[in-house]
């Protein structure tokens, strides 16, 4: 009954109202969850400003048809809250207490759609970097509590010392890093993560293969393990065609395990619209008990 009422409301309400309702729902869920888990380490923070639409489009637009929705401010915050809550839930699934996290680094932070929400952890050091100077300038001007740096297309990250971060993220970034530099970046991420630290990152797997690639390209993906679309390819994502990045890199699960598994211990591979990897930098001094139950896949 409630479902029917919701469907009817959807057809009657303006889209902007629906987007706003969904954003508020996700914001409340995130605040409730983090307040409960962080207890005394919780800090109530607002969402911060929304970036200009052109910057959202360069980081979050899958196709032209849905551009209006995907570059809407409320949708930007809704997806940010949804994804950051899921990251907290992944940490909980692997018994990682967010109160023990002292430093977080995000590679390819874009407009800090995700990183900004970690401000709710009292006293945490937050660092983001991106190859795109427009994103970093906007972040530096609008999110003064976070350290932002521009990085080059290839490592090293001059601002980051060895073993300096407890948690690292790269959401929708290795998805745009060409294969010849992926391993350089994995080695760099391994260098700056502390032993026993967790690195959560995403790759483009089955969902993007079936949505973006034609039959011949799919065959090549199967035989080679990866397929790269450039910003000039008409079937690349809209963000990539706009110049948000140069490439969309699609990889088979076996190839991802081979490449990422050479640098980290893969503790989970979570299928979804983007597949998420939970990577651990082993620490010989600490025996980590890994949850043998996989984190639930994202439905799509
Ligand atoms: C799809 S956006 C995702 C942005 C952000 N992680 C988010 O989830 O909203 C991809 C981002 O990765 C950045 N990027 C691509 N290659 C990079 C590299 N080698 N180093 C740092 N950033 C990179 C792009 O500039 C862009 O901001």
Question: Secondary-structure map with pairings?
Answer:
Blueprint: H1 2-12, H2 15-38, H3 53-60, H4 67-70, H5 73-93, E1 103-107, E2 125-130, H6 133-142, E3 147-150, E4 165-170, H7 179-192, E5 193-203, H8 206-212, H9 215-224, E6 226-230, H10 238-241, E7 247-251, H11 253-260, E8 265-270, E9 275-280
Parallel strand pairs: 1-2, 1-4, 2-3, 4-5
Antiparallel strand pairs: 5-9, 6-7, 8-9
Helix pairs in contact: 2-5
The structure holds S-adenosylmethionine.
> What is the percentage of strand-forming residues?
15-25%
CATH architecture: 3-Layer(aba) Sandwich
Shape: globular
| Major β-sheet strand ordering | 3-2-1-4-5-9-8
Biggest beta sheet attributes: 7 strands, mixed
Q: What molecules are bound to this protein?
A: S-adenosylmethionine
Q: Considering DSSP H and I runs of 4 or more, what fraction of the residues is helical?
A: 40-55%
Full CATH superfamily name:
Vaccinia Virus protein VP39
Uncertain spans, ≥5 residues at pLDDT below 50? Answer: none
Alpha-carbon Rg, integer: 19 Å
Separation, N- and C-terminal Cα atoms = 23 Å
Q: How many discrete structural domains? A: 1
CATH class: Alpha Beta
Helices and strands, in order, run as HHHHHEEHEEHEHHEHEHEE
CATH fold title = Rossmann fold
Report the structural category.
Answer: alpha/beta
Q: How many DSSP E strands?
A: 9
- How many helices? The count is 11
* Mean pLDDT over all positions: 92
Described by its quaternary structure, the protein is single chain
